[in-house]
């Protein structure tokens, strides 16, 4: 496949239009005009019908980018993902990057935008971070339509539903902890009940959008969403309520991936945005399948550390889609290694500890066990690892050497420095060459556990082999759910573990490589439409709150209409 021609790295102003018209990006990638729906000069949707034309082409090489356990300061995983795509293009290879769409909650909360930064950025970043083509709003609308129909059915006595039998909540794409627990139905004639909101990214509808193979599969999955139980204990689904068709109608355009580009003109497909610590944390199967038929190399990103997004990438997404990754990149930074070396939890919004700002190769080495475990977590799935140290200006040569040595000692086939933030594709050439060199090495991709295994064994496999737990402790409610789920249609589904991203364990206060802990499973929730069982581990909320200093306070619009502060 021919490499798409790219524009100069300086061809895009910050947050503004891309280096090239999106029509030219599409044409260079081999997308026909009738397969494209323009949303302005720099954003387009790709019609899923393209797979009918390209569906039998050979697949490109599939690479996933993950990381060590994140700290609140950010490790630059998205920068590395974008930079690797640009680096592959800079070395003459055709490449496409596939990313999740950022949520408004993290954007206005602690994390900020999800478009990378520096010379490794998706443009136009304001479009990506704010609404894009409206997919997240469509997901919320479909979710809330289902919730409204469920409450209406309950009030009218349909399907033998009672208020206490409803489990579906509402969805909103803003962090708002005041909505975690609310009471609704106080109007005359309604059925009052206690419920709450979850973030749109935590909705099963979002998980379905990311895993669906097309419109027909999307509708079929939507129909399987369980909204609650009848008085007799029978599941009531969106299909039972007659809601799936209208939900699919709301998602008709959202099922189409969004085409953008990097600052250097490398194509990027941005599609779907499931949370990684609640759902499966990966961009859509549809986007990846299109990319893999159009380019020789596809670089995708898995949310948070390798124990979170990458584990679910291997055991949920790849298994559902029948895709086989050839290599993985594990991102590390000197600062993150030092943070884990301190052995103390780092809170969101906390000031940078002085120890992280002083050169200290020994502290880097003390934090190396976390990186080692995350490299090991990828190797558990048979995929070779390239460790990428995302270099920051204050990193010393001794500290960088210590980080590279730690990665090699952990089993990484290659360990290189990336300077994609400062130098774009040129700064990621070594990373690109390393990925090309190791792709396909080793035993080859395989899931961690067989689907035939009992559900409790699947959970234990992730807990002990990936997290390093000594065992699993099920709450009484989780044990009851386990017994009910083992013999039902969920018996052969993978598990989707919901836990904190700030530790290999369930406890964000345990950095580094904790051991000797039992993983508490508080509840089990079947997600029949998405096709997995969610295990809630420790204290985890599906509706995050705002931090002490929300980033929303720093976002504004200039008199000329330019958005700043993202």
Provide structural commentary.
The protein is built from 20 helices and 25 strands. It has 566 residues and is an alpha/beta fold. A hairpin with a 5-residue loop joins strand 24 (556-557) and strand 25 (563-564). The model is unreliable at 2-17 (pLDDT under 50). It folds into 3 domains: 35-133 and 254-438, Rossmann fold, CATH 3.40.50; 135-250, Domain 2, N(10)-formyltetrahydrofolate synthetase; 455-537, Formyltetrahydrofolate synthetase, domain 3 (Roll), CATH 3.10.410.10. Strands 1, 2, 3, 4, 5, 6, 14, 15, 16, 17, 18 and 19 form a 12-stranded mixed β-sheet that branches. It has a 4-stranded mixed β-sheet with strand order 20-22-23-21. 34% of the residues lie in helices and 19% in strands.
The average pLDDT value, as a whole number, equals 92
Rg (CA only): 23 Å
Give the end-to-end Cα distance, rounded to a whole number of Å: 36 Å
How many domains is the backbone divided into? 3
Strand residues, percent: 15-25%
Q: Per CATH, which architecture of the largest domain?
A: 3-Layer(aba) Sandwich
Residue ranges: pLDDT <50 for 5 or more in a row? 2-17
Query: How many strands, which pairing sense, and closed or not: the largest β-sheet?
Result: 12 strands, mixed
Mass-distribution shape: globular
CATH C-level category of the largest domain: Alpha Beta
Put simply, the count of helices is 20
Give the proportion of residues in helices: 25-40%
């Amino acid at each position: 496949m021919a490499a798409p021609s790219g524009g100069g790295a300086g061809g895009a102003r910050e947050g503004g239009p891309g280096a090239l018209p999106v029509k030219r990006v599409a044409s260079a990638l081999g997308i026909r005009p009738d397969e494209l729906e323009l949303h302005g000069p720099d954003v387009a949707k790709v019609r899923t019908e393209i797979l009918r034309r390209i569906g039998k082409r050979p697949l490109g090489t599939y690479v996933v980018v993950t990381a060590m356990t994140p700290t609140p300061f950010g490790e630059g995983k998205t920068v590395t993902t974008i930079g690797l795509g640009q680096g592959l293009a800079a070395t003459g290879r055709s490449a496409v990057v596939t990313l999740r769409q950022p949520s408004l909650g993290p954007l206005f909360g602690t994390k900020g935008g999800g478009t990378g930064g520096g010379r490794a950025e998706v443009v136009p970043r304001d479009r990506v971070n704010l609404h894009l083509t409206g997919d997240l709003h469509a997901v919320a609308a479909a979710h809330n339509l289902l919730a409204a129909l469920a409450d209406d059915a309950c009030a009218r006595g349909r399907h033998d539903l009672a208020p206490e039998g409803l489990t579906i909540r509402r969805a909103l794409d803003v962090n708002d902890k005041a909505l975690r627990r609310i009471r609704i139905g106080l109007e005359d004639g309604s059925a009052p009940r206690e419920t709450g909101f979850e973030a749109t990214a935590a909705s099963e509808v979002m998980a379905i959008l990311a895993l669906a193979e097309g419109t027909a599969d999307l509708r079929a999955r939507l129909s399987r969403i369980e909204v609650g139980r009848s008085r007799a204990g029978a599941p009531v689904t969106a299909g039972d309520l007659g809601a799936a068709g209208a939900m699919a109608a709301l998602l008709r355009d959202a099922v189409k991936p969004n085409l953008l580009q990097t600052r250097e003109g490398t194509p990027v497909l941005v599609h779907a945005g499931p949370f990684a610590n609640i759902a499966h944390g990966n961009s859509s199967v549809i986007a990846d399948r299109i990319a893999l038929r159009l380019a020789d190399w596809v670089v995708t990103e898995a949310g948070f550390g390798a124990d979170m997004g990458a584990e679910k990438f291997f055991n949920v997404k790849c298994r559902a889609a029948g895709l086989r990754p050839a290599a993985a990149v594990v991102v590390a930074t000197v600062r993150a290694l030092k943070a884990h070396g301190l052995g103390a939890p780092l809170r969101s919004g906390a000031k940078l500890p002085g120890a992280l700002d002083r050169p200290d190769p020994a502290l880097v080495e003390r934090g190396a066990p976390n990186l080692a475990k995350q490299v090991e977590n990828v190797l558990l799935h048979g995929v070779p690892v390239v460790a990428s140290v995302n270099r920051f200006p204050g990193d010393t040569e001794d500290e960088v050497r210590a980080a590279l040595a730690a990665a090699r000692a952990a089993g990484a086939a290659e360990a290189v420095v990336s300077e994609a933030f400062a130098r774009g594709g040129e700064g990621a050439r070594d990373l690109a060459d390393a990925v090309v060199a190791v792709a396909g090495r080793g035993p080859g991709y395989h899931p961690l556990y067989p689907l035939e295994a009992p559900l409790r064994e699947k959970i234990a496999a992730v807990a002990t082999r990936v997290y390093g737990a000594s065992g699993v402790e099920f709450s009484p409610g989780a044990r009851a759910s386990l017994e009910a789920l083992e013999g039902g249609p969920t018996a052969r589904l993978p598990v989707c573990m919901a836990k904190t991203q700030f530790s290999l364990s369930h406890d964000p206060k345990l950095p580094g490589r904790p051991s000797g802990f039992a993983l508490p499973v508080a509840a089990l929730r079947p997600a029949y439409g998405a096709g997995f069982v969610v295990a809630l581990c420790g204290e985890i909320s599906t509706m995050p709150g705002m931090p002490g200093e929300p980033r929303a306070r720093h976002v504004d619009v200039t008199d000329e209409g330019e958005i700043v502060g993202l």
